[in-house]
Amino acid sequence: MKSDVKSDISKWQLKDFEILETLGTGTFGRVCLCKHKTSKQYFAIKILKKQHIIRLKQVEHVLSEKETLSLLDSPFVVSLYKTFKDEQKLYMVMEYVVGGELFTHLRKAGKFPNDVAKFYAAEIITCISYIHSNGIVYRDLKPENVLLDNRGHIKLTDFGFAKVIKDRTWTLCGTPEYLAPEIILSTGHGKGVDWWALGILIYEMLVGYPPFFHDTPFKIYEKILQGKIEFPRFLDTSAKDLIKKLLKKDKTKRIGCLKNGVDDIKNHKWFKGVDWKILSGRSIPTPIPVQVKSSGDSRYFEKYPESGGYSQGKLASEEQLLFENF
To answer: Are the C-beta atoms of residues 129 and 122 closer than 8 Å to each other?
Structure first.
């Protein structure tokens, strides 16, 4: 959390950070491991190219990520400490979460045992519930966006699609395999899309792949709208029941969206025996040990070629104004 930092954030400047290596790459830029030269603490710095953001019409999402992360302060959400900008790039200095993506651990394991999937699902539910209590819909739940900290607890990252929603919104965004039917059909969506995505994630953790997949997004959308789910025989019956209730096409009948909200999910028989209070205090031992030699260890992240210099044309003053509030 934000109180863990050992220096005065208000005095930070971009030159105070040494960029060490790339942890991940995306459409607009990359995330790098960096070190604060004075405090010697490690951070992740998200470096985004303004031109790419404008060209792909993602200005609103980038500004929204800063806004939503500034509103949140939870041990289950990655902390944003500081933002910088220069003529060509935006920079977000964030907490470095040393255990890597849940996706990496899931691919290594193939699939998770029932109790392991249940542990991560329970921590994710606690996190999503907290985000919703702040009036925010996350809209990008998937194993790549769930990180593990040095003790193996979850931290949600990448809030580019997160949005403060009072009633509902109509934007098509997210990852194809995880999109709720109401997003695909543009009928307006709200917090229920996160509970749909939870159903997809629980299935993927237990089975090893998502319930709706294909080579093309259009075919994935077709399968989601058809709603036919094949459950392997080995699947725990109560897990199967919860997944079915989370993957209700009609959002008014979807668990999590009913009168009792998230409590219906927490009280489901799959979570029998879970002490939610102890869990929210991150006091339950984690099923996957994170073993690192130092706080700057990057063994749980893939190695990427470092980016060379690239030339970009100068942005017009009206384009720079788009990032005035960053």
So the answer is: no
